[in-house]
Specification:
Helix content is 30%, strand content 26%. The protein is α+β, with helices and mostly antiparallel strands. The chain has two domains: 109 residues; 61 residues.
């Protein structure tokens, strides 16, 4: 999914308002290390499957070999190539799926939200924009789009809220323990969502009901 244009935020403009900030979860901060571990585990499983998956069977005797009583010599016989190939492919697909899911989810976890209010020139309408920085983006860079094309979807039955946009897909917002307008919010999910929704609506942003899909602007 496209992230839209990125803009530096090392020195935010004077009219930029930070309404949300939260440190990403530990796994999102260490996702590259987790992907490295996933890669090592996947390659190890493929190696074990290809070279060491088999059975111990009695060793075939040649015509001139003398039998040694009850002592039966065994040898390692690998599984057929077709079975080992399928198993290795399953290991590879599982490893890629886990790594892809970690990276994709990390790229959708919101770290901060700013409201950008550009200066209005004479005779031109003013179009506020939303600036979102995620856990996968470098500090000071993020995606931006018009405020009217984004809607906040809150559901008290879920821990995460969603920021739904018309051109950038959905973004995950966890308000528990976050900082909203410079003030910390409680870790209770219901209270945290309520506090963030109040700030979101107060700035004229759009909220959407998860049940009816109806959008409202307060």
């Amino acid at each position: 999914m496209a992230r839209g244009p990125t803009i530096p935020l090392a020195k935010p403009p004077k009219d930029a308002v930070e309404i949300f900030q939260r440190t990403p979860p530990w796994w999102a901060r260490w996702v590259l290390a987790l992907v490295a571990v996933d890669t090592m585990v996947t390659t190890s499983m493929m190696e074990l499957t290809w070279f060491h998956w088999g059975t111990m069977e009695p060793k075939a005797k040649t015509s001139g070999e003398i039998s040694n009583g009850d002592a039966e010599e065994l040898e390692f016989v690998p599984r057929p190539y077709s079975l080992r190939s399928v198993a290795c492919f399953m290991h590879f697909a599982t490893g890629c799926g886990i790594a892809g899911a970690l990276l994709a989810t990390r790229s959708r976890i919101v770290r901060s939200i700013h409201l950008l209010h550009p200066l209005r020139r004479k005779g031109e309408p003013r179009h506020p924009r939303i600036y979102v920085s995620t856990a996968s983006m470098p500090f000071g860079k993020g995606a931006s789009w018009p405020m009217h094309s984004a809607a906040l979807v809150a559901d008290s039955h879920k821990l995460n809220m969603q920021l739904q946009t018309s051109s950038h897909g959905r973004w995950l917002i966890d308000p528990r323990g976050a900082t909203v307008e410079g003030k910390p919010v409680p870790k209770d999910p219901i209270e945290a969502q309520r506090r963030f929704c109040e700030v979101w609506n107060r700035h004229g942003c759009i909220s959407q009901s998860p049940n009816t899909g109806r959008k409202t602007r307060k």
